[in-house]
Write a structure and sequence with these properties.
The protein has 314 residues and is an alpha+beta fold. The protein folds into three domains: 98 residues, Acyl-CoA dehydrogenase/oxidase, N-terminal domain (Butyryl-Coa Dehydrogenase, subunit A, domain 1); 100 residues, Butyryl-CoA Dehydrogenase, subunit A, domain 2 (Beta Barrel), CATH 2.40.110.10; 104 residues, Butyryl-CoA Dehydrogenase, subunit A, domain 3, CATH 1.20.140.10. It contains eleven helices and eight strands. The strands form two sheets. A four-stranded mixed β-sheet has the order 1-4-5-8, with helices on one face. Strands 2-3-7-6 form a four-stranded antiparallel β-sheet, with no helix packed on it. A hairpin with a 4-residue loop joins strand 4 and strand 5. The longest helix is centred in the first third of the chain and has 23 residues.
């Protein structure tokens, strides 16, 4: 998989050397996102199989989880438009998204088990009210692929301009890890979105697809793999290889294996810190950054089944 090799080289040669500076920045530098676009990674969700997407996401996360996370939010909209739907919508949006000329974020308020973002029809317009509690990449994204819940308990997905207004207000959240993702709490107050920006409409409910959990696990595997490489040969290497293969099976055990990926990242970061000693506490050391990233991937987007499995393991 040549694209995976390119992603790993990019992670090692570009993202990792800049990771400490990115971690300390107010927002991930635009030039890093532009270099990702120049390498073609913004279009990977359209022309690569699922296993390749997972492998590229893991590779980039091993370089800098902050940059990889902002980039990964983009892939959902690319996949939605590539998989089908309205021809006019694809003609308008897909090409600039694939080039990275337009960058997308993700707002999931309407897809939560207890939805916090709601939509109602007003003629040919959707009107959005409520909040999306975590929206990453504010200031470096152009649009937000937004999920809102209708009165009929359906989820409508819309392309929303990432522009603050009286109808769309954002509040910056400060995170102990990945703060440079510029994550905000977005409040929608009667925001009107034209119907021609609708990418999907489907019933709510059902369990989280294993593919979603596998993608989340890729981020954890990326952090764990970087820790393992810095640590040197250890039994954790075999655990990483085995868990990656198990996750690729996409079976009923995927929620538990998603939990295991987060735990492995924590264990690998702890082992690395212990091997390095007190120097790991210095702000200029990659180990403290990786430890905080491991905490992030441990709890990021946990679904009930994965959370239960994680608590049982801990």
């Amino acid at each position: 998989m040549e694209v995976v090799e390119r992603a790993q080289r990019f992670a090692d040669d570009v993202l990792f050397p800049a990771a400490l500076a990115t971690d300390a920045a107010d927002v991930v530098p635009r030039e890093l996102l532009e270099r990702l676009a120049a390498e073609g990674f913004y279009g990977i969700g359209a022309d690569a199989d699922f296993a390749t997407v997972c492998a590229v996401q893991e590779a980039l996360a091993s370089g800098c989880l902050t940059t990889a996370f902002v980039w990964a939010q983009h892939l959902g909209l690319v996949h939605a438009l590539s998989a089908g739907g309205d021809d006019d919508l694809r003609a308008r949006w897909l090409a600039p998204l694939l080039r990275g000329d337009v960058r997308a974020g993700l707002a999931l308020g309407g897809a939560l088990p207890q939805p916090t973002l709601h939509a109602r029809r007003d003629g040919e317009v959707w009107v959005l009210d409520g909040i999306s509690p975590f929206l990453s990449g504010w200031g470096v994204i152009d649009v937000v692929h937004t999920a809102a819940r209708t009165a009929d308990d359906e989820i409508v997905w819309l392309i929303v301009d990432a522009i603050e207004s009286d109808a769309l207000r954002v509040e910056r959240l400060r995170l102990v890890a990945l703060d440079a993702t510029a994550t905000v709490r977005a409040t929608f107050d009667g925001l009107r979105v034209d119907h021609d920006r609708q990418t999907a409409l489907h019933p709510a409910g059902g369990e989280t697809p294993p593919e979603v959990l596998r993608l989340h696990a890729s981020l954890a595997l990326g952090v764990a793999s970087r820790c393992c490489r810095l640590l040197g040969p250890s039994p954790l290497d075999d655990k990483l290889i085995l868990l990656r293969a198990q996750l690729d099976e996409l079976g009923p055990e995927t929620p538990a294996r998603r939990a295991a990926a987060g735990e492995l990242a924590i264990r690998a970061a702890a082992a690395l810190a212990a091997s390095r000693g007190s120097g790991s506490l210095l702000a200029g050391d990659h180990v403290q950054r990786l430890w905080r990233e491991a905490l992030f991937v441990l709890i990021y987007a946990l679904r009930p089944a994965s959370r239960d499995a994680l608590l049982a393991r801990l």
